[in-house]
Amino acid sequence: MELKNNAALIIIDQQKGILHPRLGRRNNPQAEERMLELLNHWRLTGRPVIHVQHLSHSPDSVFWPEQSGVEFQQRFAPQAGEQHVQKRVPDAFCATGLEAGLREAGIDQLIIVGVATHNSVESTARTAGNLGFAAWVAEDACFTFDKADYFGGAHSAEAVHAMSLGNLHGEYATVTSTAQILADS
């Protein structure tokens, strides 16, 4: 892939609450390091960065607006000139103005990272693809948690992550690595 000068990095839900132990076992322990590599590169090259913040409707959520879990982790705090999008559902395009802002800026290439792979990352990447954006998901800059399926079967975070990426790759987005994205920039 050829990374455009205006390719946007979309960092999803890197808030304090995502680190809460009650969310359970996760995969990709180096995901934040990969996200920060991309973020630092985007900042050095002057490409657009979009920070997505989830504001939950549920008082028992780690992202409930009236507690500190909703705040960005310090290492992912938006800097001057970086866009900040607040969402109320997993999909960062739903009722946020994200699509309009990208189109207005002439941005058609998106690199999507963050959490959780099977939830906000997947729903945002699906919509990006459906809307005609060229979307890439950095598989090593996302993570998720152990999860039970509809029938109660337990699945490891690794399996949930892999299935979610499989759902996306080739249809809604291109799944690749941080190293490949950086090599193409």
TrEMBL record:
Hydrolase is among the record's keywords: yes
A Pfam cross-reference name: Isochorismatase
Keyword Iron on entry: no
InterPro entries from the UniProt entry: Isochorismatase-like_dom (IPR000868), Isochorismatase-like_hydrls (IPR050272), Isochorismatase-like_sf (IPR036380)
Domain of life: Bacteria
Entry-linked Gene3D superfamilies: Isochorismatase-like
GO molecular function: hydrolase activity
Key words of the record: Hydrolase
Domain Isochorismatase-like: 7-180
Protein name: Cysteine hydrolase family protein
Source organism of the structure: Pseudomonas fungipugnans
Lineage of the organism: Bacteria, Pseudomonadati, Pseudomonadota, Gammaproteobacteria, Pseudomonadales
